[in-house]
Design a protein that fits this description.
mainly alpha; 5 helices
């Protein structure tokens, strides 16, 4: 009977970890979306960038990274989920760091930037 309780405890820990990872990625994704919406409303921020269909498609594909990791963190085993989160986090962090050197910083940037 003690072994059965131990198995249930391990199972619930895995579920909690998956819930934690997916919840954190949802938070990150919603923060990115908020920052992008606020940035699109600021003409100083995107004044020199032409918002073409290709640009918006690229942005949509870019935002699919955290959305996909939300799903992957729920369905993959821990090790694979961990690596997916690390790789996606590195991609997002590097690209967001690079955008700091391209755009004109505004006060809202410090609050809404991921």
């Amino acid at each position: 009977m003690a072994a059965m309780g131990n198995i249930n405890k391990k199972t619930s820990e895995r579920i909690d970890r998956k819930v934690l990872f997916s919840s954190l990625w949802l938070f990150v994704m919603l923060t990115y979306t908020y920052g992008d919406v606020v940035t699109l409303m600021d003409p100083v921020k995107h004044g020199s960038i032409e918002l073409t269909e290709s640009f918006l498609l690229g942005g949509s594909i870019y935002m699919m990274i955290p959305i996909t990791v939300v799903l992957l963190s729920r369905i993959l085993k821990y090790q694979a989920s961990r690596w997916a989160s690390i790789i996606a986090g590195m991609i997002m962090a590097i690209t967001l760091t690079l955008t700091l050197f391209v755009a004109v910083p505004t006060p809202i940037t410090h609050f809404s930037r991921r």
